[in-house]
Amino acid sequence: MSPSTQRALMQAEKSGPLSIQTTEIYKPLASEILIRIQASALNPVDAASQRSGVFIDTYPAVLGLDIAGDVEDIGEGVTDFKKGERVQVFTQGTFEIRSRAFQQFAAVKASTVARIPDSWSYDQASALPVVVTCAYVGLYNQVPDGLGIPPPVTEASQGIFNGTAIVVLGGATSVGQIVIQFAKFSGFSPIFTTASSKHAAYLQNLGATHVFDRNISSSELSSKIDQLYDARQVSLVYDAVSSASTQQTGLDVLSPGGKMAIVLPLSEDVKVPDGKVVSSILGLMTVPQHRELLETLYHDKLSGWLESGVIKPNNIEVLPNGLEGIVEGLSRLEAKQISASKLVAHPQETI
Asked: What range(s) does the Enoyl reductase (ER) domain occupy (predicted)?
């Protein structure tokens, strides 16, 4: 029998501190499942939410969007899972407190839940949802919500871009790593990326064909690309960093008529030339125009792609002390002390 209360990392007011509180366990509504959360991954958006209240409508609030765990209960109309079934699953939570990640149980839409393959751990699966969603939407949703590339959901749409280049700025970011792997799955070659040189071999293993130093100037980057590929034909850029400088670099290397996806709003200091298109990506399931694309991804495709190795696990660092460890983890994210790895907490270890 499931317990009636749980432990949650809660924020009482905007910009306030986080503290562990006892709260209710939600009853799954129609089309929902209740997940006993075994692993919750941290994202920069969580630190931003704590600091400024972005994506939070009411308080007290629970943060966190990346969830992996076991099916604990099911709501009316759910047929893909059974009550009491010990199935390892993962999903991206929404902004409702009942589906947030920094607690021991969450109720989420069954249509957005994927099973975890036996070869993947809870920790590895929990690191995926936000970054997979952002990468997938940015590549495969239609302009202006993405680059408009045909999603690789059938054999006919996989591997079809051989000989076509894509540039991924910030390949070592969590989003950038997934973008590279999806780009490889879609057949893009060459795949140019920028990153710290220490990550070059790792990114090449993921599918990048050429890794350039992240501090390279846009003119030098264009020159290096031109030595390997006609730089005038670079029609797709995914900027997984999206600072003002990387946005400008992306536009500089992008050919006329090309498209660039960015993961933060366009900087006021950056001007988009006529004929070039910039799509600012909000990689969240709550965005209505993403819903059908993402439900197909999570419900039908993602588990198989993980099992077959299309997507490889991120590097993981597990935080100690259950939910309590998240507080320091968010501080480290805010201070930009994390590189090429994901921080993960274990809510069930909370005292």
From this structure: 16-345
Q: How far apart are CA 220 and CA 253, in angstroms?
A: 10
Instruction: Determine the Cα–Cα distance for residues 275 and 306; give it in Å rounded to an integer.
Output: 37
Query: Under 8 Å CB-to-CB from 334, ≥6 apart: which residues?
Result: 47, 51
**Residue recorded with tokens 């109309």:** 77
Residues in the chain: 351
157's tokens: 């749409």
List per-residue pLDDT tens for the chain, 351 residues long: 568 899 999 999 999 999 999 999 999 999 999 999 999 999 999 999 999 998 898 999 999 999 999 999 999 999 999 877 777 888 898 889 999 999 999 999 999 999 999 999 999 999 999 999 999 999 999 999 999 999 999 999 999 999 999 999 999 999 999 999 999 999 999 999 999 999 999 999 999 999 999 999 999 999 999 999 998 999 999 999 999 999 999 999 999 999 999 999 999 999 999 999 999 998 777 788 888 999 999 999 999 999 999 999 999 999 999 999 999 999 999 998 988 889 999 999 998
Tokens, residue 125: 């699966």
Asked whether the beta carbons of 249 and 218 are under 8 A apart, the reply is yes
Query: Where is 49: in which H helix or E strand?
Result: helix 44-52
